[in-house]
Amino acid sequence: MQAQKLGAVGRGLGLLADTWTLLILQRAALGVRRYAGWRDTLNISDATLSARLRSLVDAGLLETRPYREGGRERREYALTERGADIWKLLLATWHWEKTRVPREVPLPDIVHRACGAPAGVLTCCGFCGEQAGPRDTEVYRTPGTPGLEQLARQHPRRTRGRLPEDSMSLLPGAMEIIGDRWGATVLGAALTGLRSFSAIADALAISPEVLSDRLRRFVELGVLERTGAGAYRLTEKGIASFPIFACLVDWSHRWHAGVDGSPIDFTIRHRACGAVLQVRLVCDRCGEAFDRGSVSPVQPS
Ligand SMILES: [Zn+2]
Ligand SMILES: [Zn+2]
Asked: What is the pLDDT of residue 283?
C-alpha cells in the first residue's frame, strides 16, 4: 500500500512550526544573508543553524549564492519567492504578540510606509475585501487526507538553549503557540472547532502525554480555558491567534498545494463571499492593504 502524500497544511506546519526556522526567516526578511549574521545574533549553535539552513534550502525557501571574501569563495543565503512569501505570517505573528502578550519591554511598533502611522493589522478576504476573522470564516478538513495526524507522528524538533533576547526576535508568546509542530497542531485543532481531549486525541493520533502537556501549557498561557472535565475552549486571546493560523494555511495552499501539488487537507472559507480565504492584511489606520516591504519596524526609544 502506497503512503498517501501529506496534505499541504500538514507540510506547511511541519516546515514552519519551529522556533528557529521562524527566527531565521524573520532575520532573513530583515536583511540577514550570511551565516555569521544569524549565528552572532540568534544565540544558536552551529549544528542547529546549519541543519535549519539546509532544510530551508531543501524546502525552497532559501537559495544559496556565491560571494567572495578574502579571496575565498563563500555562500550566502537569499530568500526565494516562496520564502519571502511568509511575510504575512511574520506580520500576523508580530501583531498577535504585540496586542495579546503582556511584556515588560514592548515590541517595536511597525510603521506602514504608505500612511506613516504605527499600524495595527486587520485580517481581510483577498477576494471580496471584507473582514475575515475567526467568526467570519469556516474551517473544513478534507476527510481522508493525511495532514495534522501524520505530522504528529514525525519526530518533533525541539528548541534547545536560550532564545535571543533582543526586542526584534523575542516573541515568546507566539513561539509557544507556533514554535513547535505539536503545539501548532493542537492550536489548529482547537481553531477548527475540536473542543474535547478525546476529540483532539482521536483527530491527531497524538500521544495523551504530549496532548496533556500542550493543553496545560495553552491554559497557562491563557490561549485555552477549561470548561469541564476534558473540555476546552479558546479564549479571546486564543481566538485572536486565528490570523497566524490563517496565514500558515494560505501560504501552504499557495506553495504546497498550488506549486507542489499536495492534496488540500484544510480549507478556510470566507462566509460572506464563499471564497477560499486568501489572506489580505490591512492597515487599521489607513485601510490600505499591506504588501511585502510596506512595513518597517521601529525600535522603541
Ligand atoms: Zn470574501
Ligand atoms: Zn496605513
From this structure: 95
